[in-house]
Write a structure and sequence with these properties.
The complex is a heterodimer. By secondary structure, chain A is an all-alpha fold. Chain A is built from 4 helices and no strands. The chains are: A mainly alpha, B mainly alpha. At the A-B interface, α1, α2, α3 and α4 of A face α1, α2, α5, α10 and α11 of B.
Chain lengths: ~70, ~800
């Protein structure tokens, strides 16, 4: 008994197509969501997240000042 | 000064970003930067190792052309370099997997972990969930790399590209990746203090989930000893699995995590937010949706069913769009800051890195188009493509990140900006000097393979002619590699000096952020717009309005668990569509009655072939292309590979295709060729395999391997009985050894590995021209294939 014997016995051919349909729906949802105008302010806020400050070690602050000069 | 700039480095940034604190009680915590420092060090060290091994294998392809160089006085000044192409542990076939694994999983892998551990803590405003898991992850991963560095040169391999590591190491990878890294990461998301998950985190999630899935499914194998196993898949199906894995390793190890890195560190370095956040979201979903389908483009014109490779091509071409969207998004992050490029090496590395990303993602779809692929496949064009991506995109993004991180992690200024600039220029020049000649080499060789003369015969029937032609380009590559490594060495030195200037004790600034209150998501009030209707329709309309409003997706962005599930569905659905039909629909692999399992001796020879990594230089797949069938014989059929666990189609022809090698040459020819290829073909660049004439075949092992194959469904019948396999192997080996001895070769080869390897080569591709066996396939019980050696096979 080979793997392909088992697989062919299972009648799986329909699942991938169903899975694709499912994903396509999610995908379209995501794109629609991203392009909605309402989302704008929210996204602008999110975009700033990496720039959110943190307390830096003294050494880093010094080095930054020096680099700026 | 823009809002963004003002936000940098100050405690008050939160107020300005518009992300309101959800509770007033502030929590205090520190970030674990020690672990980031560790991963960064590992990145640099393994990077150098991986690059140097690359240089060694590049040298191995040019060394043979100088080793035999003889001066007028008869001396051979370069003979001492011969060890590079004759030492058992250093042959190209064994070192090339070490190079690829080191660069992908050790260099890029550790770079990813550096980025993830630094940025995740900051984006979540939380320390990594468990310091212990962080450390286990770090040491576990380094241990895996050491295991790889030991086993690969020793010839322990599963024989599938980028998935060579043997099963115990595979198990370890799964444990470290999911058990330590995955758990730690997802728990950190769970305890985060920032509601919205920034897009970089999404890319990390997709990476962790998908890599786990790919790794487990592709590595399924039956152990046949502690360091030997056979893929449960065979032939066409194994090939499909492998390139589904292989391509997605590119996608989810070398692309998505680095995009996460880009979306975090680019804005950091440029001190402005990403150009378009919504584009980044579209970018994310498009990539994980489309990438997963693209694998079969590695298998055009092979025995893979045409529908699968056409599907792969279509999706690959579609990939071009989101990739460029993402690339442009990255570059435009520098809007209004282009002047900074002139004096900031970090930004320069990033910009060139992203440019290489765009070049590679333009070229990738191009290469996946069948007519282009017909020329490019099996040539150095692929190698050039990969190195544009790996050195340019992964390398430069990593270097940029490291230069940005170093002063922050070592809490002092970077030792020398000048050296970083030198690194940038040496690196850029090195990449160009590598990639451009190798493109030319690829196209040259591709054209030579298919050139016909006026009489309609191949213009270059001698394969080695097409190899010799490439030597100048291969030398240029060596030069490019040296420059790139020189640059990376400068970086290592620069980091060392920066580290030496670190403070006596690292400061651990205490951070403050409000705790997240449990999410009470009040859905915006929607009313059904329908009049008098069923309850179901009202609900449906509300659902639709919510969908259009993006409410569902907003929920998703905040809930890691859901995000994981959906990205898993995304990648799994693509995979299912690609893989299931191949297993489920029988007609996709028509069987051929005359194809029978390898004899025990041939199987042992195949094990040697796999262990030596011959697939790194030889394909076993003749495409249905005129120039190819003319050169190698009848094109390969899917049914010919049903007993190939694992498949050995290969992806690059540094040497000729071997799919129909059986019967082409005498046993003695093979023997002498393995002993020293340059004895037979003066310009050959194949390594010498003299050690195979010495090392003995372990008959107990032969029997064990036959039983393991029988377990995964190869019909070995009687052969699994005690003593049968060894008996058959001995008989066949004696035939071959006798033939070699009577043809004037050395004697006493009946128990040597080389004999098994010759038996295997003599079998390759011969089944299809045999009459179907009368009784159901009974392996090895049939004739000793070794005798077919000399006379008749020559004329297919």
């Amino acid at each position: 008994m080979k793997l392909s014997d088992v697989m062919s016995g299972l009648g799986l051919a329909i699942y991938p197509i169903a899975a694709m349909g499912l994903f396509l729906a999610v995908y379209i949802g995501a794109v629609v969501r991203a392009t909605r105008r309402r989302a704008r302010s929210e996204m602008d806020a999110a975009a700033l997240l990496p720039l959110d400050g943190e307390r830096m070690a003294a050494g880093c602050v010094e080095a930054r000042k020096e680099a700026r000069r | 000064m823009s809002t963004a700039e003002a936000a940098v480095g100050t405690g008050e940034a939160r107020a300005q970003t518009g992300v309101r604190p959800e509770s007033t009680s502030m929590e205090r915590f520190t970030y674990d930067d020690a672990i980031v420092r560790k991963f960064m060090l590992a990145t640099v060290v393994w990077g150098l190792v991986g690059f140097v091994v690359g240089l060694v294998i590049a040298l191995q392809l040019v060394i043979p052309s100088v080793v035999n160089y003889t001066t007028a006085s008869g001396s051979r000044p370069f003979a001492f370099l011969g060890f590079l192409v004759s030492t058992e542990f250093l042959t190209f076939g064994r070192l090339r997997p070490l190079h690829t694994n080191a660069v992908i999983f050790a260099f890029a892998g550790n770079a990813i972990f550096t980025a993830v551990y630094y940025s995740t803590q900051r984006l979540c405003k939380a320390r990594m969930w468990s310091d212990t898991l962080s450390r286990l992850h770090f040491w576990g991963w380094q241990f895996i790399i050491v295991c790889a560095a030991l086993t690969l040169p020793l010839g322990f391999t599963q024989g599938k590209e980028y998935a060579e590591l043997e099963w115990p190491i595979d198990v370890l990878i799964a444990v470290v990746w999911l058990g330590f890294f995955g758990t730690n990461f997802f728990m950190t998301l769970k305890v985060r203090r920032e509601r919205h998950m920034y897009v970089a985190l999404w890319f990390y999630i997709a990476t962790i989930v998908t890599v786990a899935m790919l790794h487990v499914l592709n590595s399924l194998a039956i152990p046949a000893g502690w360091l030997k196993s056979y893929s449960v898949y065979a032939g066409v199906q194994d090939a499909m699995m492998q390139w589904w894995y292989g391509h997605n390793a590119v996608a989810f190890v070398l692309t998505t995590p680095f995009l996460g890195l880009m979306y975090y560190f680019m804005p950091k370095a440029a001190e402005r937010p990403v150009y378009s956040y919504r584009l980044s979201i579209v970018h994310f979903w498009s990539l994980i949706f489309v990438y997963i389908w693209a694998g079969p483009h590695h298998l055009h014109y092979t025995a893979l069913p045409a529908w699968a490779s056409t599907l792969g091509m279509l999706f690959s071409v579609m990939l071009w769009m989101p990739s460029w969207g993402g690339g442009i998004n990255g570059l435009l992050t520098l809007r209004g800051a282009w002047h900074k490029l002139t004096d900031d090496p970090v930004l320069r590395f990033f910009v060139v890195g992203v440019t290489f990303y765009m070049m590679s993602t333009f070229e990738g779809p191009l290469l996946s188009i069948k007519t282009v692929n017909m020329l490019s496949h099996y040539t150095d064009w692929t190698i050039a493509h990969v190195h544009g991506g790996a050195l340019g995109w992964n390398g430069f993004l990593t270097f940029g990140m490291i230069y940005w991180l170093a002063p922050r992690l070592f809490q002092t200024r970077l030792h020398s900006k000048k050296l970083a600039e030198w690194h940038f220029w040496l690196g850029t020049l090195g990449i160009l000097m590598y990639v451009v000649p190798i493109y030319i080499a690829g196209i040259t060789q591709g054209l030579m393979w298919r050139a016909f003369d006026k009489s309609g015969s191949l213009q270059f029937p001698d394969f080695v002619e097409t190899v010799t032609k490439l030597m100048p380009f291969y030398w240029a590559r060596v030069g490019g590699g040296v420059l790139f490594i020189l640059g990376a060495t400068l970086m290592a030195y620069n980091l060392l000096r920066t580290w030496m200037a670190r403070p006596a004790v690292y400061e651990e600034p205490v951070q403050e952020a409000p705790a997240l209150r449990p999410l009470v998501e009040t859905p915006p009030k929607f009313k059904s717009r329908l009049e008098a209707n069923t309850e179901f329709s009202h609900k449906g309309d509300i659902w639709l309005q919510k969908a259009a409003d993006g409410w569902w997706h907003r929920l998703l962005e905040r809930r890691p668990a859901k995000m994981i599930v959906w990205s898993l569905i995304a990648v799994a659905s693509g995979s299912l569509l690609e893989i299931v039909p191949l297993f489920a629909i029988r007609s996709n692999v028509p069987s051929i009655a005359s194809v029978t399992p390898y004899t025990p001796l041939e199987l042992a020879g195949r094990d040697v072939y796999v262990a030596e990594g011959c697939y790194n230089c030889h394909s076993q797949m003749i495409r249905p292309i005129w120039s190819e069938t003319k050169r190698y014989g009848d094109y390969s059929k899917p049914g010919e590979f049903v007993y190939d666990h694992p498949f050995q189609w290969g992806s690059r022809r540094i040497g000729p295709d071997l799919a129909r090698e059986g019967g082409q040459r005498s046993n003695l020819w093979h023997l002498l060729h393995f002993q020293d290829p340059r004895q037979s073909i003066t310009q050959s660049i194949m390594p010498s395999y003299a050690h195979l004439l010495e090392s003995r075949l372990d008959m107990g092992e032969v029997a064990r391997h036959v039983r393991a194959q029988a377990m995964i469904g190869v019909p070995y019948g009687e052969m699994v009985k005690e003593g049968k396999a060894a008996e058959s192997a001995r008989a066949q080996a004696k035939q071959i050894a006798d033939d070699i001895a009577t043809s004037g070769g050395p004697t006493g080869l009946e128990d040597k590995k080389v004999t098994a390897l010759i038996a295997y080569l003599q079998r390759l591709g011969t089944d299809i021209s045999k009459p179907p066996p009368a009784a159901p396939a009974e392996a090895g019980a049939s004739e000793g294939a070794g005798t077919a050696a000399s006379a008749d096979g020559a004329g297919h």
